[in-house]
Design brief:
The structure holds 2 protein chains of 2 kinds.
Chain A: E1 5-7, E2 10-13, E3 19-24, E4 31-38, E5 42-50, E6 53-57, E7 64-68, E8 74-78, E9 87-94, E10 108-109, E11 113-117
Parallel strand pairs in A: 2-11
Antiparallel strand pairs in A: 1-3, 3-8, 4-5, 4-9, 5-6, 7-8, 9-10, 9-11
Chain B: E1 3-5, E2 10-14, E3 19-21, E4 24-26, E5 32-39, E6 46-52, E7 60-61, E8 64-69, E9 74-79, E10 88-98, E11 101-106, E12 110-115
Parallel strand pairs in B: 2-12
Antiparallel strand pairs in B: 1-4, 3-9, 5-6, 5-10, 7-8, 8-9, 10-11, 10-12
Classes of the chains: A mainly beta, B mainly beta.
Chain lengths: 118, 116
């Protein structure tokens, strides 16, 4: 079955612009999470969506937002880009983020979107 | 607070040798799950292996095995017969219950380099 798909893979934006990244989770998965990865900060949790509702949120400014559609696809948006937003943005999907910690609820990641802000 | 600690910033291993990547965790919750991921330079986080806190046996997946020592709160990844393609960053992560649903925390990673 198809894995987690993220688009675009690479993009370059100018300071002040806004960007939208897309993530299609594995078929049947309802939980989608977003992470920012930078060399200095490691993996930082942005937010998690489940059944179109934001369920968890990390410590990022309001410029970072997201949403999930009825087909579980998710988008994240960063407005008023800053140089420090340059990072790899990873999307992760799992079947259900609430109940079982059994192996069937494994978290799978996409290839990521490399964002460079100049 | 739930936390993952990976104390080895970088490791070298000779091709075909085995290597152990360390991971310790901190949680007071009896129910949790531990993951290992591999991240090559391309950026994708590749799921390797999972261990649930109630699992009696150590998890194994091909050349990967997880040395789970619950009392010591350690979940080391063992890669047997290293290959050049194993060169990558490796992340340990823990999934735990919080506020009615689950959260995940990651370690800072270990960079593994396999030498021919």
């Amino acid at each position: 079955k198809a894995g987690v798909t993220q688009t675009p893979r690479y993009l370059i934006k100018t300071r002040g612009q806004q960007v939208t990244l897309s993530c299609s989770p594995i078929s049947g998965h309802r939980s989608v999470s977003w992470y920012q990865q930078t060399p200095g900060q490691g993996l930082q949790f942005l937010f998690e969506y489940f059944s179109e509702t934001q369920r968890n949120k990390g410590n990022f400014p309001g410029r970072f937002s997201g949403r999930q559609f009825s087909n579980s696809r998710s988008e994240m948006n960063v407005s008023t880009l800053e140089l420090g937003d340059s990072a790899l943005y990873l999307c992760a999907s799992s079947f259900d983020g609430t109940g079982s910690l059994l192996s069937g609820n494994t978290i799978y990641f996409g290839e990521g979107s490399w964002l460079t802000v100049v | 607070a739930q936390k993952i600690t990976q104390t080895q910033p970088g490791m070298f291993v000779q091709e075909k040798e085995a290597v152990t990547l360390d991971c310790t965790y901190d949680t007071s919750d009896p129910s949790y799950g531990l993951f290992w991921y591999k991240q090559p330079s391309s950026g994708e986080m590749i799921f390797l292996i999972y261990q649930g806190s109630y699992d009696q046996q150590n998890a194994t997946e091909g050349r990967y095995s997880l040395n789970f020592q619950k009392a010591r709160k350690s979940a080391n990844l063992v890669i047997s017969a290293s290959q050049l393609g194993d060169s990558a960053m490796y992340f340990c992560a823990m999934r735990f219950h919080s506020g009615g649903y689950q959260k995940v925390t990651f370690g800072i990673g270990t960079k593994l380099q396999v030498i021919p």
